[in-house]
Amino acid sequence: MALTIREVEHVALLARLNLTAKEKETYTEQLSSILEFFEMLNRLPTDGVEPLAHVLPLCNVMREDKATPSLPKDEAMANAPLSENGQFKVPKIV
Amino acid sequence: MKLYQQTVQKIGEMLARREVTAQEVLASIAERIGQVENKIQAFTTLTLKEAEGIAADLDSRGEVGDLTGIPCGIKDNMCTRGIRTTCASEMLENFVPPYDATVVNKLKSAGAVMVGKLNMDEFAMGSSTENSGFFPTHNPWDLTRVPGGSSGGAAAAVAAGEVFYALASDTGGSIRQPASFCGVVGMKPTYGMVSRFGLVAFASSLDQIGPVTRTVTDCALVMNAICGHDRQDSTSLQLEVPDFRSYLQTDIKGLKIGFPREYFQKGVDQEVKDTIKKVLLKYEELGAIVEETSLPHSEYALPAYYIIAPAEASSNLARFDGVRYGYRDTHAEDIIGMFSSTRARGFGPEVTRRIMLGTYALSSGYYDAYYLKALKVRRLIKEDFDQAFDKYDVLISPTATSVAFKIGEKSEDPLSMYMSDILTIPVNLAGIPSISIPGGFVDNLPVGLQLMGRPLSEGTLLKAAYAFEQATDYHLRTPVMEV
Fold first, then answer.
1. Of B51, B98, B92, B57, whose CA–CA distance to B74 is shortest?
2. Distance (Å) from the C-alpha of residue A7 to the closest C-alpha of chain B?
3. Minimal Cα distance from B193: which residue of A?
4. Domain at B3-255+424-476: CATH code
């Protein structure tokens, strides 16, 4: 299935990726050929097959609701690209 | 024989008998790294100085243990407290984790001496380590060839004698395919055997940590140290971990081995097929019952994987937004612009490609056609294995379709690179354990033998691998490097 540049732009927006015009072209071409390869899946009938998202028979693993020590704030913040007064600093939101 | 050439088992014995000190062992490794690292480029970060302190401390305390005092490397996608963890990405180039991954903690308690973090394809996405955001790693058997990927640094470092063993991760073959290309042993345990806490997530339903070693015995020793339940990883299994050494036996009479015909078809080099066919004859000689079998949905595993893994990755990698850690592009004026330019600059091309692919497969209107379809195919693949394991204890195939390919040979065509994972991917979709060991050579390049087993049958795999290893000398061959 061939993708259009517009579709690639839409996906890039959803994924928060600011692509250049050249990258958009490259990904349009490459993703189209990958999607074309995926079309072989249509040859395989899967009606009535239960989807398998996870191989383990686990469901809602619970633990006791008990507080345990967590990272000190300064350590948790130490990798922040920009912070002020112990808070993450970001550009204008509204 | 130099110290760095020994196995984990042998060095452990020598340390226990006080024939050498941890500092002497480390000095041998440091010397070897000094000789070959400029050619191999296996490490993203070297921590020899920290290692010296740890070795000196271990010597002064005189503790002994299977891994105590033995130098190792860790793939650079496992968090190491105070030591940068980059995933070989500009996005995390300066990220210094405030905590250790559970496996790192376990190795520390076992007295391991970490000498560095190992190169990889960026965020573990790739099959050659050429996607590293920093530099490619070279195969010690032929420096013009790739070491495989994504754990190319781990496999190359173990093969070249720069570490005695390494921890790596395997989402679609990232431990086994580089082990195959570099002539070493690599195990992907059953999903849930090893805690993923502190492993930077790629595809959470497929990722698993495992050892890269030079021998099957060493693999068992490292498995003993890293397996087990962890309350920090809700998908880690609650079970008693056996002593994997107890499976290291050579008597495999009556072991039922199947070889799936789909793994010996077109797309696999003839010399590789011939090599593994010889392996099957060896197993018959050793008393195993060897029969052809079928995993009929195998050809659908690759497209299903390249939908599921990127879909999970697109979600997991959403956290890299330039706010809490990692790279940030500071030019943007609003927050959406900051996210978008940070991610566009921080991620390399393959990571971007997979995020795009996964985002598309999960997007409104395409979810059923791609993601849901792939999950149904995943069920069929798992059922193929279930049926095969009703009849066979172990399945055997080549690990990779070829020997190590040339640097640059596949890097321009993403789809041909994806194809190189075709024999390792089904194992991850089914969550079963698998090991790659040296199975022979073609033109002085190693060929990996892949053994696959039912869930939690690591012991049986180690036994079958050990029996073959002891009957052959492939594991004793080492790459000749001019120093």
1. B51
2. 9
3. A56
4. 3.90.1300.10
